[in-house]
Amino acid sequence: MDTTLLVQMLLGALLALSVYLPLTCGQLSLATPGFYAIGGTLAALLSTKVPALAGAADPAGGAYPLGSVLLEMLLAALLCGVLADGIGRVVLRLQGIYLTIATIALVEILRVVSLNLEITGGAVGIFAIPQPFADPAGYALFAGALLALVCWLCQRLAVSRPGLAMAAIRDDAIAAASSGIPIEGWKRLAFVLSALVAAVTGVVAAHFLNAWNPRLGNFDASITTLAFVVFGGSRTWVGPVVGGLALTALPELLRPVGDLRLIVFGLVILLGPALFPQGLVTPERLSAVAARLPEPLQRRLGFRLSPAEALDPEVRP
Amino acid sequence: MSPSVSQPATAPLLAVHDLTCCFGGLVAVDAVTLQVHTGEIFGLLGPNGAGKTTLFNLISGITRPSAGSVHWKGVAITGAPSHRVAALGMARTFQNLRLFNSLSCLDNVRVGLHRHSRQPKLQALLGTAAFRRRDGALRRQALDLLASVGIAELADRPSESLSYGQRRRLEIARALACRPELLLLDEPAAGMNPTEKQELSALIRRIRAEHQLTVLIIEHHVPLMMALCDRLAVLNFGRRIALGSPAQVRRDPAVIEAYLGTTVELGSADASGSCAGGPQP
In chain A, which residues have their Cβ closer than 8 Å to the Cβ of B139? Predict the structure, then answer.
């Protein structure tokens, strides 16, 4: 497998996690490509139009400084976080399909705006985005580290108070509110986290792709990222990661089949949910796999302690 | 008795004044006034569609009232959102059971502990020993609550797999986890057989004593309510038609009419009263 595909897979997994986060509290948001596009466009603009960010390295040869990429990620996260918080206050009042439609509208608005703005290069987009890494391996390491960080955050979220609150909201929002959970706040947190993940992924993608145009954040991308989660399973963070990796890889791996690959890909998307209605990865299958791991590792990963075991963790060996 | 006069020295725990709720043209709750005092078990009786559950929804912040007021310990809380109401010290159960079906019984109760389970964010993020110790303590609290309603052995089971009566108990445990002062029970005995009803009645008395609770309870089963409640209010067509001790309410002619459908020569009652106000088993 070539490294370029690996980077794409890792980015796909990150986007899948961005779709997964609002789903943890039952919110189907398709806004991920919108925030991804904001991150990508911001990175493209900053790295091509702000000479200071290129640092000492001469524009002709040297690599773009990694510090500047991190700075772009920070700025993109800030911008999208604030934006998502503001939009969330309005949009998250909607429920079910209406929320989804509103987020599709957001993606479309952002696409049309960037298509018509001069600064974003219109339909042509922005070219010659400088590279912080000389080869795809660097990107793979960087995206891998980012994915590991987001996975770790999702795991900590799942096993602590926020995860429980979000699961409660997903199951029954009225009962959750009556149990003292401020549901608006938690929904918005999940939405903002989703935007942050999408934004930083966009920054990495912009450098990796070398060029950015408005088509990268369109409705097709919404559906693709949603397919990652549906295919992989939305009840644990592992599902979206598996779905993102697999469905990004599949079209490329199927290349030898020629034009048939689109049909095979379509079949996989069709049969996946039909055969595995909850996605490939469910908590039950996950804990069955986890049961084979060494016990200390199991506990460290927070896999299904029975209540009695979990009561006094420090008493146990 | 004049309910509108404020009692500055001893404000009732919960005071509902002229509370009204309209859904389009239907007046579901019609200017209901009642007060619940600390420590009592207050019952709400009434035929189906009398507005009992709507009244619960108005009190617990799920539905906004069209008019009237709700006071908690003398402070107006009319229209406050449900999580705020829960934070004040009111917890409720639901007529149609609203459990978190994908969660285990223990986790259902842990959700109830939400407001009491705040931990330093960094510790929670890193999963430090301090975090795990506190988390263990919270799980023990949840398990104790399950034990107090008699279903501790089901802690690990998904709440979906419980029997009906067990679910009712689980919902009560979850409500208790909010550490309420006032517990609102919406038909906790619905669908239970006579033995289970007796057990439930005993359970309500016991948890009231153990947790120093005031209880506001909706129930159809009249004998159970007569035995359990200190005071009762009877609703019919959204109006409070009686209020008092079980003995007083039992003799009240308006209650007898609502329950037994006695024909009374009232112009308005003639048209709709005979079937819509019919008795409930």
Answer: 307, 310-311
Residue A196's φ and ψ, nearest 5 degrees, are -60, -45
Determine the structural domain holding residue A22 and report its residue range. 3-218
Cα dist. A146→A186, A200, A270, B206 in Å? Answer: 24, 9, 30, 53
Is A57 within a domain?
yes
Question: What SS3 class is residue A61?
Answer: coil
pTM: 0.88
Q: What is the pLDDT of residues A242-276, one digit of tens each?
A: 999 999 998 888 888 878 877 888 888 788 888 88
- State pLDDT tens for residues B166-188: 999 999 999 999 999 999 999 99
Closest chain B residue to the Cα of A181, Cα to Cα: B83
The residues on A that touch B, with CB distances below 8 Å, are 153, 156, 159-161, 164-165, 167-168, 170-172, 174-183, 235, 302, 306-308, 310-314
Alpha helices, DSSP H, located in chain B = 52-59, 82-88, 105-112, 121-126, 129-148, 164-177, 194-211, 222-228, 246-251, 253-260, 267-276
Distance from CA of B254 to the nearest CA of A (A): 34
**What's the N-to-C CA distance of chain A in angstroms?**
42
Residue-range domains of chain B with CATH: 6-89+180-249 (3.40.50.300), 93-179 (3.40.50.300)
Domain count, chain A: 1
Q: Which neighbouring-strand residues pair with B17? A: B69
- With an 8 Å Cβ cutoff, are A171 and B100 in contact? yes
Tokens of B166: 């067990």
Residue A112, helix vs strand vs coil: helix
